[in-house]
């Protein structure tokens, strides 16, 4: 007999800012297609609920937000660190904010 234990999933809101150097937007745009491929895979696995760009006062992308279903803040940080936006020096990991949330069932 096989016994399965379900992992408890929590919901998290993540905000992370981009680096502020002038070339950051070019790095972002260069790896954006690969970032979207990964995001779609996480969406299909119900890890990613939703996400998108944070926009500054001039209408330019300056960071990202994500709503995630994961076990812990450590798992959230692992996902963020392995994203192509992190490995390509788009996201400034010193600015990551992780908040546990409860998404309304509407």
Automatic annotation (TrEMBL):
SUPFAM superfamilies recorded for this chain? Dimeric alpha+beta barrel
Q: Which domain of life is it from?
A: Eukaryota
Q: Where does the record place the YCII-related domain?
A: 13-90
Fetch the InterPro entries from UniProt: Dimeric_a/b-barrel (IPR011008), Sec-metab_biosynth-assoc (IPR051807), YCII (IPR005545)
Q: Which residues form a coiled coil?
A: none
Protein name, please?
A: YCII-related domain-containing protein
Q: Which organism is it from?
A: Smittium simulii
